[in-house]
Design goal:
24 strands; 3 domains; 5-stranded mixed β-sheet; alpha/beta; FxsB family radical SAM/SPASM domain protein; 10-stranded mixed β-sheet
Length: about 750
């Protein structure tokens, strides 16, 4: 082998260079590159054997766990069953040592019969077929040379595949704006495909796609019509483009080369044994896909090092400046590489479909967010009354996880976070529960927000990934971030001391090493109650200092014991006297952060908007006060999550409003937050001190503040409803003092 580089793992083998259709939108025969005309019609057995040998040596050298092969053309079935049978036997034998070999064939379906299906079933080959919709849509372009349409023959092939689901790979559909998107989508569904790929027609800046006047993004409009039908129907089929947008929005890999930042791992082998880059490059110019290499003289490492191949593997760095600065680049990835071509600029351009991709991705992201996180009416009603049970809080937590994923997705292409991102994605698939426990730690989001703003290092993602690895008992090596000579793994431990700002962390059978040495470790502290509730007692996370009060330094064992005693007593009180609050708190509160002691005679507590799941407090004078602080601050946690989802007031209102419990007037959000928190304060004293002075005072204050909110004139319709429910809640409390909350 010529050297160890990033391996190739996807191989398109052109088994036949001619086609029995004359589709007028085919990139092989109707675009700039016409090299097909000088190549042999079918791949010879000698070239088949050499191709299989090259793939096998590459897979063995790089220890590939999976290889994907697509038999293509022209029309590959023109090669005939005997040649295809020998080719498949040679490939399976040569790659028998590879754990997973995925072989597919892409055909126009005209020649597909039971004999071919038996052959493909024998060798585990899945069959994809091209169909552009109903008869009218398909026959607009997919025609014989004499002008006859192909719909009847293709539909026959698809019905055959419906009866052979074990080899049915799916349908590829090329978009034409002249075709009605709803009719096309429904026509495809009639054949019950396991997958559908919607393909933009191949085009470049030199040869742009048709665009009706006055419609800047018509391909997005077409696809969004299909997307809404797909959503309304409950996503009955895997549509790779839509699923790829959803996956990349949440930081996962794309399922299609049409979008995404994943480096290309694909090479084409033509019928004469020459290697080519992705063959859709033929739309750009004559020879655009060429490498000057072949299976007899060059191994696949040499192909992987070809400048054209390397250019398609550089991720964000390989995109134009416009693309790198685009807010949807993590999903778009610049679009399909050939679609960026312009004479004189090469491929250093956005996609010629840039307006369409931008509109499609932003709309899909927006609609997915709305559909995933619209709260049930009963949940919104319960929360507006100041309460919320377990399932209600789980709705809020799910929305916060999505926001967290969106934040962290923006970091995946950062050079100093890329290795950690790969580990984290791997851990999410191998140990999802442990990884989620780390990712939902409140101060992971606090770090992510600061990182996006540029005030915290992206390298800390390695600490987060390492925490998931350690929790799962897995193995990894990561360059982690140190703070003040210590390395913190959120939800796990603090390690050190270390020298410098970074350290090489190795997790494995020998435990955790930093720079190859064992180090001291202090596990995170927890608080438990006798009723089985456990949360973190956070006194060491470097990003916990996001509250309005200063945080305390790490606790001594004696101080931690005092917190344990106070928490156990406080939580028993909450569960006994305020069960309607306890259920929600237990579902959503996972961290109690220790604040520095306040001035004598005062209490200190806080909730941070960017730290869902945490409240902070200094150790209060008695357990009852701690119970009150937990209830009070968790109200802020709930309302903050709601305000991430819904507009309850006009954010542009500059006015300040009187708050009965403060000397200074408050902005509208501050008044809303304070009033909502004091629903719980009023309820606490209603039960704990019925008809007492504190209950009466907080009841009056909260009721007065509700009326100020209602009369502000700046609430949205949903805000009006929300405040009306708050009014009902405080009115009920004042009318019915005493009893369990």
């Amino acid at each position: 082998m010529s050297g160890r580089g990033a391996p190739l793992s996807q191989f398109i083998i052109k088994v036949h260079s001619r086609c029995d259709l004359a589709c007028d939108h085919c990139y092989v025969y109707t675009k700039a590159d016409q090299s097909w005309n000088s190549r042999p019609r079918a791949m010879s057995e000698e070239i088949v054997a050499r191709t299989a040998g090259r793939i096998a040596e590459h897979a063995r050298f790089h220890r590939l766990d999976d290889v994907r092969i697509v038999l293509h053309g022209g029309e590959p079935l023109l090669a005939g069953r005997p040649l295809l049978g020998r080719l498949l036997s040679i490939l399976r034998d040569a790659l028998s040592f590879v754990p997973e070999v995925d072989i597919r064939i892409h055909t126009n379906g005209l020649l597909l019969d039971e004999g071919f299906c038996d052959l493909f079933a024998e060798h585990g080959v899945r069959v994809g077929v091209s169909l552009d919709g109903d008869r009218r849509a398909n026959d607009l372009h997919r025609r014989y040379a004499d002008g006859r349409g192909s719909y009847d023959q293709v539909s026959r092939a698809l019905r055959l595949l419906q009866s052979r689901p074990g080899i049915y790979g799916g349908i590829l559909c090329t978009i034409d704006l002249a075709n009605d998107p709803a009719n096309v989508y429904r026509a495809l569904l009639r054949f019950e495909p396991p997958h559908v790929d919607f393909l933009l027609p191949h085009a470049t800046w030199d040869d742009p796609p048709p665009r009706p006047a006055g419609r800047p993004a018509p391909y997005a409009d077409w696809l969004l019509s299909v997307f809404r039908l797909w959503e309304e129907g409950g996503r009955p089929v895997d549509v790779r483009l839509f699923n790829s947008i959803i996956r990349t929005t949440h930081g996962r890999s794309s399922l299609t080369e049409a979008i995404g930042l994943e480096p290309s791992a694909l090479v084409v082998i033509e019928t004469d044994g020459t290697y080519e880059q992705v063959d859709s490059l033929k739309v750009a110019y004559e020879g655009a896909a060429g490498t000057g290499m072949n299976v007899f003289s060059h191994d696949l490492d040499a192909v992987a090092a070809h400048p054209g191949v390397v250019a398609r593997r550089t991720g964000l760095a390989g995109l134009s400046r416009i693309c790198r600065e685009c807010p949807v680049v993590s999903s778009c990835g610049g679009g399909l590489y050939p679609h960026r071509y312009r004479s004189g600029a090469g491929f250093d351009e956005p996609s010629v479909f840039c307006p369409d991709l931008y509109k499609l991705i932003t709309n899909v992201r927006g609609e997915i967010k709305i559909q995933r996180h619209v709260l049930p009416a009963h949940t919104l009603d319960a929360l507006a009354r100041g309460l919320g049970g377990e399932q209600d809080i789980r709705w809020l937590a799910a929305s916060q996880r999505s926001l967290q994923q969106a934040l962290m997705t923006t970091l995946r292409t950062r050079e100093d976070a890329r290795a950690a991102w790969d580990v984290l994605v791997d851990m999410e698939s191998r140990a999802p529960d442990e990884t989620r426990r780390v990712l939902t730690h409140p101060y992971v989001r606090a770090w992510a927000v600061q990182c996006v703003k540029g005030t915290s290092p992206a390298r800390y993602l390695a600490n987060i990934a390492a925490a998931a690895v350690v929790r799962a008992g897995a193995e990894a090596e990561l360059l982690v971030q140190a703070h003040d000579g210590l390395v913190h793994l959120p939800t796990v431990a603090t390690l050190g001391p270390v020298r410098g700002e970074t350290a090489l962390l190795t997790a494995g059978p020998d435990g955790i090493l930093l720079d190859g040495r064992e180090t001291a470790s202090r596990s995170v502290r927890t608080l438990t109650s006798g009723t089985g509730y456990e949360i973190l007692l956070e006194d060491s996370d470097p990003y916990r200092d996001c509250h309005q009060w200063p945080v305390a330094p790490p606790l001594s064992d004696e101080q931690a014991d005092a917190w344990q005693a106070a928490f156990d007593a406080a939580w028993r009180l909450v569960e006994r006297e305020h069960p309607s609050y306890a259920e929600g708190i237990r579902a959503g509160l996972n961290t109690l952060t220790v604040l520095a002691p306040p001035p004598p005679g005062r209490e200190a507590s806080s909730a941070a908007r960017q730290a869902f799941g945490a409240v902070a407090a200094a150790l209060p004078r008695d357990p009852a006060t701690l119970a009150l602080l937990l209830m009070h601050e968790f109200q802020h946690v709930k309302l903050g999550a709601l305000l991430d989802l819904f507009d309850l007031y006009d954010e542009n209102d500059p006015r300040r409003f009187p708050a009965p419990w403060r000397d200074d007037p408050r902005p509208l959000e501050g008044l809303l937050q304070g009033t909502y928190a004091h629903l719980a304060v009023t309820d606490f004293w209603r039960v704990h001190e019925p008809r007492g002075e504190r209950f009466l005072r907080w009841g009056r204050h909260t009721a007065s503040a509700v009326e100020t909110l209602a009369g502000s004139g700046s609430l949205t319709p949903l805000g009006d409803l929300f405040v009306a429910r708050m009014r009902e809640a405080v009115t009920r409390m004042i009318a019915e003092p005493g009893g369990a909350g």
